[in-house]
Design brief:
Blueprint lengths: L7 H12 L8 E4 L11 H6 L6 E4 L2 E4 L2 E3 L5 E4 L7 E4 L2 E3 L5 E3 L2 E3 L7 E3 L7 E3 L2 E3 L3 E3 L7 E3 L2 E4 L2 E6 L5 E3 L2 E4 L9 E7 L2 E6 L2 E4 L17 E6 L2 E6 L2 E4 L7 E6 L6 E4 L2 E4 L8 E2 L14 H6 L15 E5 L11 E13 L2 E6 L6 E11 L3 E3 L14 E6 L7 E9 L1 E8 L2 E6 L8 H4 L7 E7 L4 E3 L9 E6 L3 E8 L3 E6 L2 E5 L6 E4 L10 E4 L4 E4 L9 E5 L3 E7 L1
Parallel strand pairs: 1-2, 2-5, 3-6, 4-7, 5-8, 6-9, 7-10, 8-11, 9-12, 10-13, 11-14, 12-15, 13-16, 14-17, 15-18, 16-19, 17-20, 18-21, 19-22, 20-23, 21-24, 22-25, 23-26, 24-27, 25-28
Antiparallel strand pairs: 29-30, 30-35, 31-34, 32-33, 32-35, 36-41, 37-40, 38-39, 38-40, 42-48, 43-47, 44-48, 45-46
Length: about 550
């Protein structure tokens, strides 16, 4: 540390100011069995008496009712304690804005669905919930629904059925086990007339107990792991589909009336778990025959992991594709794109990948690299530059070796130069680029004396850091005004793991927000205004600033440039 021991006095004042930070004052009402001391004995009664912003805490027990939610901004949380869990024998219907349902066990026997987000639902979340024997339904018109960390056990219908827009299904497992009746079918995840849907880190297991008797049904009626029809901008990312092909019409993936421009798959694995040579994937009109694919389907196949049990070849030669299950971190100065592929053989391949215009990527700097334990430049050239009309870049690959190697399209990272403006006294700052700095490197060339402290949320103590890392916030004391420029790769987004309580976080290279939180964070962030020597509510995460965020429970958040 550079400075003098009198800095301990400002630190004591800082600790006092931190203790005065506001905490959440949201209204909590309770639901529980009779004689439990809860405010209500019915979940529906609690909803009817709640106001926007309320939290409804449901005590362990069995509740038999159908719950309709018409109140905005409710958090309905089932308490999981050593005494048991919350079983709802019935269903939820959500008609409101910003509603979260968490930690329930829902038994929707004899119902049409376990949870339904109707056309008026918007920005709602279903979290940590077990659903049986029916699934989740998102109606046409619903927007921004997130289904996260759920387990769906379905015997009829769809485990997750989405007709809405801007929805996400994350870290969710769907087990499909249809009833042993000839006219009963079920599917894992279906996207029908949906728009901008992401299915990320999900698993679908389909068990078809017996073949269907009636063969006159359309393929839409037959079991499938993932079914997509008349939808737009669908992304399957890091998913696994395992299916028993005991019926000749069953597929892991079914696309109907769609084309390559509306569907992309990244790290998608499908397994045929029965001794069968039946196809795993059904594409519109042409079935599953690679030799009949026209050129447009190569866009889809380049990012597609086809199957673990069937070997698949592209036309034109002996080219095999398989899963690239472990993505290596890109070399320094580069950013990964959507295209990763393990390939072998002696043939040609045309890779198309989606261009993502983000602040961290320099446009028109795409290169093909090979990974075999370390990164190597492939030397291949792009056959055409960025196509702004289709948002793709093509790469012709020739002269492949016989051994499997991983190939990826990487983009050069944009370099940012951002100023840290420090005022005399205490400043709450962060490193807004993808690079670490020691205190000496940060203040190189400056005559100001300084002191730097970081916050340990686990033990709730300050300490002097050896390096300043992106993603973290720091208190910096300087004896005079000083401006420091940090230079490094653009920091567009990054994940953070939060401890329960107050956490000191950093910023990105551009104005950013907190998204995808599993930590139940307080919505208000606090920053320090050195000119006024006081805290202020933050309207967004500004580059180079540090922020206090309160987490009611440990978990993760994602900081993303807006």
């Amino acid at each position: 540390m550079k400075g003098n021991p009198h800095l301990l006095i400002p630190l004591l004042l800082l600790a006092l100011l931190l203790a005065l930070l506001p905490t959440s004052a949201a209204k909590v009402i309770t639901v529980g069995p009779p004689d439990s001391g809860a405010d209500y004995s019915s979940i529906q009664e609690a909803v009817d008496n709640a106001k926007p912003g309320y939290t409804i805490l449901v005590y362990p027990g069995n509740y038999t009712e159908d719950v309709t939610i018409d109140v905005d901004s409710l958090y309905i949380n089932a308490a999981v304690t050593p005494e048991g869990v919350v079983w709802l024998k019935g269903c939820f219907q959500v008609n409101a804005y910003n509603v979260t349902i968490a930690n329930f066990y829902v038994d929707a026997t004899l119902k049409g669905y376990s949870v339904c987000f109707t056309r008026t639902a918007e920005k709602c979340t279903l979290l940590n919930t077990v659903l049986l024997p029916m699934g989740v339904q998102v109606d046409s018109g619903a927007k921004g629904v997130v289904i996260e960390n759920c387990l769906v056990l379905v015997i009829i219908g769809d485990g997750v059925a989405i007709r809405g827009s801007d929805c996400r299904v994350e870290r969710t497992v769907v087990l499909v086990s249809p009833l042993p009746v000839s006219f009963i079918t079920a599917r894992g995840i279906s996207l029908i007339e949906a728009d901008n849907i992401t299915v990320d880190t999900c698993g679908v297991i389909v068990l078809q107990l017996q073949p269907l008797v009636f063969k006159t049904f359309s393929i839409q009626s037959y079991p499938a792991g993932i079914f997509i029809k008349d939808s737009h901008k669908c992304l399957l990312k890091t998913c696994c589909v395992a299916i028993n092909h005991s019926d000749t019409k069953t597929r892991s993936i079914v696309l109907q009336d769609s084309d390559n421009s509306v569907f992309k798959a990244v790290l998608l694995v499908t397994y045929n778990v029965s001794p069968s040579n039946l196809p795993n994937i059904s594409l519109p009109s042409r079935g599953f025959n690679f030799s009949e694919f026209n050129f447009s389907w190569l866009d889809l196949l380049a990012d597609f992991i086809v199957t673990a049990s069937d070997v698949s070849f592209l036309p034109g030669g002996d080219l095999e594709m398989r899963s690239c299950l472990e993505r290596a971190a890109p070399p320094e100065g580069y950013v990964s794109t959507l295209s990763y592929l393990d390939i072998a053989g002696s043939s040609w391949l045309y890779i198309n990948f989606t261009y993502l215009p983000t602040p961290e990527i320099n446009e028109s700097t795409y290169e093909v690299w090979m990974y075999d334990g370390s990164w190597h430049e492939s030397g291949w050239n792009c056959s055409r530059v960025l196509d702004t009309a289709r948002n793709v870049v093509g790469v012709n690959i020739t002269s492949l070796t016989s051994n499997f190697k991983t190939y990826a399209v990487l983009a050069k990272k944009k370099i940012e130069s951002i100023a840290l403006t420090l005022h005399r006294g205490w400043n709450l700052v962060s490193i807004p680029v993808d690079k670490e700095f020691t205190p000496e490197q940060l203040f190189q060339g400056s005559s100001a004396s300084y002191a730097i402290y970081a916050w340990n949320p686990e033990v709730k103590e300050y300490y002097e850091p050896e390096t300043l890392k992106p993603g973290e916030g720091y208190w910096v004391y300087v004896t005079s005004d000083v401006s420091i420029t940090v230079k490094g790769g653009a920091l567009y987004q990054y994940p953070l793991n939060l401890r329960k309580g107050w956490n000191l976080i950093g910023s990105a290279s551009h104005l950013a927000v907190v998204v995808e939180s599993t930590a139940r964070c307080h919505p208000i962030l606090w920053t320090w205004v050195p000119e006024r020597y006081r805290y202020s509510q933050a309207q967004g995460i500004m580059p180079a600033s540090g922020y206090w965020i309160y987490a009611a429970s440990p978990g993760s958040v994602m900081i993303v440039s807006s």
